[in-house]
Amino acid sequence: MIYLKIFYLFFKIGLWGFGGGVAMYSMIQFEVVEHYGWLTASEFADIVAISQMTPGPVSINCATYVGYQTGHGIFGAVLASFALCLPSILLMWVVLHFLFKHKENQYVKHVLAILKPTIAGLILAAGALFINSDTFIDWETVLIAIASFAALYFADINPIIILGASALIGIAIYG
Asked: CA–CA separation, 130 vs 148, rounded Å?
C-alpha cells in the first residue's frame, strides 16, 4: 500500500508541479512532512540540501531521496523518481504522436516553423550566458560551440557523435 501512495504522490506532483524543481519543493514538503508524516522537517531540509548538491534535476533528486528515506530503499527511490517523471513522459508521447500524425498539416507546419528559430534563440541565449562574463570569455568553449554547430548544421553529423567529440575535446583542453 505504501508503494501505491509513493507512486500517487510523486505522479501528482509531477503532473501539477509547475515552475521547475525548486518550485516543487513546497509540494513535496507538504506531502511527506505535513500530510503523510514520513519525514521530519529537519530530515526534509537535509534532503533538499543533498538534492541541490548532487548532479541532476533537483526535483528528481529530491524524489529519489524521499523514496529511499521513507524506508523503502532502492525500490522506493526508483518508484518515486519514475512517478515524478511519468506525467512529462506521457505528455511528450501525446504531443509527439500528434505531431507525427499531423506533420503534413499546414497549421502544424506553420507552428513548427515559428517554434524552431525561437527554440534555437533560447538555446543560443542560454549558451551565451555560460560563455560571457564581465571579465572573462572562455574562447576554447566558444570555438567548441561553433564547431559543434557547424558539424550539426552543415555536415549533418549525428548529435550524439558531436556531444561525445565535444566532451573529449573539453577533457583534452581542461583536463
From this structure: 16
